[in-house]
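Narrative summary of target 7.
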Amino acid sequence: MAYSRGTSTNIIVGAAALFVADTTLDANSLTPFVNSETFRETLADDADYTNVGYTMNGLELNFQPDFGEVQVDQILDVAKLYKQGMQVNLATAFAEATLENLLLALAYSDSKLTGTKSSSNGRSLDLSAGDIGECPVERGIVAVGPGTGDCVDSAYVERVYTAYRALSIENVTVSAKRDEASMFEVSFRLLPEDVSGSYGKIVDRTWTATS
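Modeled conformation, tokenized:
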């Protein structure tokens, strides 16, 4: 194979659209792809997903392996490393400061959000302290962004990030400032699903628009 400096079409630039599922996901419960449309449109038509809208600072997946060490007398460095743990986090910031997005950022159940904006009592989110034995709310996350490869006529590439089990675990700040937009910075801890032990998957796909 002839030497090549690189492939510019494999460089990804651009943000992703973020959707949060009402429940956890697994390989068998994922919404199927449609060849004639972007996965953003497919998820937008699925009532089980919520589009968080505008985000800030993109999407960041962080993989943190934990390795143990075996030290021996005969060498000053370790003789062997072995993997003893793994942690995966997904971070973003919800730029639309809706109560629905705050509910997702706080990992509250849907029952905490009641009423409507048009009613006399308005739409309200109960900021509950929780109770002993209360289960944390896990949800699935799907993000759709630009992928790698050539875009030919009427064909488009995208990358789909899927997290089967996600739980918001970091501090969430709610602000109202004169010179800064109110947004919710959120970090999700990803957990492996029971059957396969997988955190999720990343798919590069091409879809073709119909005329």
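The mean pLDDT is 91.
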